[in-house]
Amino acid sequence: MQKTIIKRIALICAVILVPVILFAGAYGFVWWKVSEFADDFSRDISPYAEMSYQGVYIDLFQSEVGLRGMRFTPAGMKGDIGIDETTLKAPSWGFILSLDEQLSQGELPESFNIDIKGIDLNLQSGYMQDWGRMAADMQRQSGPSYDTLACGDRHYFSIADIRKMGYNHIRSDLSIQYNFDRIDKQLNFNMQSKTAKMADVSMSLSVGLTGDTLNMQTLAFAQPQLKRIKTRFYDRGYNLRRNTFCAGLNKEPVKEYRQRYSTLLNKRLSYEGWTIPDPLFDAIDSLNNPGGSFYLRVDIPQGFGMQSMALIQQPTDLLDALNPYIEFNGKAVSWEGTMWSEPDPEGRRLLHELNIGTGVEDDDNSDVAAISDDDAEPQESDKFAHPVYERRSAYAQRRAKNKKDEKAFKVVDVPNLAAHLGEPVILYTYFGRKVEGRLIDVDDKVITVEHRLVDGRGTATYPISRDKVQSARLYY
């Protein structure tokens, strides 16, 4: 009897302990593999940054692993980038345990999630100061930012400016997911970003593939086609701080600053070739108000790939092809009526290229072909004026006074073109295309223009159907 009881107790212990031992063994093995992968990753990025972490997170039931208390120190810089937690979720433990090997072979899982919580950037740290200086150099080359229009004499916001807006730390959460639908042969991406007291941004993307395998090598030849895009933006405090900061620089109420910003935004869009209907422009401008939001959705069942992109000649062609649905602040807005033409103020760039191509020196026409530094400066300064667009506007106003007496590109009737063979011309078609060059032939059906190639290797002849020409400009 006593032996029977002992056997039963031993059996019960075995039933209880064996799963526990197996679970503990599996947990320990996974912990070791995750630690090994983290240490290898730390070693791989060591030339760029030092990485440390406080602990490993494992959920055997949800196939989740992660690292907690991560710190990154960029090489040669002072200060740490902190991350509270990074979590990785895959469809199976088999993939997680062989993650390094799988990725090295270019194999991808059918679904994959990465959650990064508590990304902390210290704006007073050495690395942010260094990155800020590098960003400033790039922004100087790319020109003034839209964000700084009407904001004193700022061309861009420095780290010091961001701190003056009340941001000492920037804390963000980032989540990235993707999954592969083998039935529809479609790869779906999702990204969500939340930055405290700044903004929330999300984006989803669906790409159609020709094959049903998920491998980096096959994806490179899978002729992907865009099927859907959705993106959202919510202001969570940045607009209020930016508006208050800029109004303070200008020593004016926020309302007056916003009106000034709206005026300069309209000028800059026009300068860059855009003609935007008033309802759409007002909606775009409202995105800069506190709590502004934006939503865009594009559905392309037939797909949009490289062949489709080859047909795009200008931005409005892309709008026509994608036909997006747009909302600002929760209200749908139509983009119909939006037009774009290549910026070319008074045709000076074209005339300069034509003169170079024909060997004509800048003598009598030098005042048209080039703008001197003295002419480029406005006669009167405005302490709130934008340094680029206000200057061009003032110059254009002065030139307009003498426009009737000087040579320039001027609108002419299409029937009168035949009398101006050999002269520089700009043609605009009903489809929004712009053809520029030297007029070489005009008949009842076709207008022929000789255009100098951008690479300077010669010229190309463009015959344009006369009934497709909407307007023409000649230099005389």
Explain the overall architecture.
- With 476 residues, the protein is α+β, with helices and mostly antiparallel strands.
- Helix content is 35%, strand content 31%.
- It is built from 15 helices and 20 strands.
- The protein has helices at residues 2-44, 93-97, 99-104, 126-142, 159-164, 216-220, 238-250, 254-271, 278-286, 306-309, 315-322, 348-358, 366-369, 373-376, 389-401, and strands at 49-52, 55-59, 64-74, 81-89, 111-122, 169-181, 186-195, 199-208, 225-235, 274-275, 293-304, 325-328, 331-333, 339-340, 409-412, 424-429, 434-442, 446-452, 459-465, 469-475.
- Strands 1, 2, 3, 4, 5, 6, 7, 8, 9, 11, 12 and 13 form a 12-stranded antiparallel β-sheet that branches. A 6-stranded antiparallel β-sheet has the order 15-20-16-17-18-19. The protein has a two-stranded antiparallel ribbon with strand order 10-14.
- A hairpin with a 4-residue loop joins strand 6 and strand 7 (186-195).
- Helix 7 crosses helix 8 (254-271).
- The longest helix is centred in the N-terminal third of the chain and has 43 residues, at 2-44.
- It is globular, with a radius of gyration of 31 Å.
- The model is unreliable at 353-400 (pLDDT under 50).
Sum up the overall morphology in one term.
Answer: globular
Mean pLDDT: 76
Q: What portion of residues belong to β-strands?
A: 25-35%
Uncertain residue ranges: 353-400
- The count of β-strands is 20
Q: Quick one: biggest sheet?
A: 12 strands, antiparallel
Number of helices: 15
| First and last CA, distance | 120 Å
Q: By helix and strand content, what is the structural category? A: alpha+beta
Relative helix content: 25-40%
The rounded Rg comes to: 31 Å
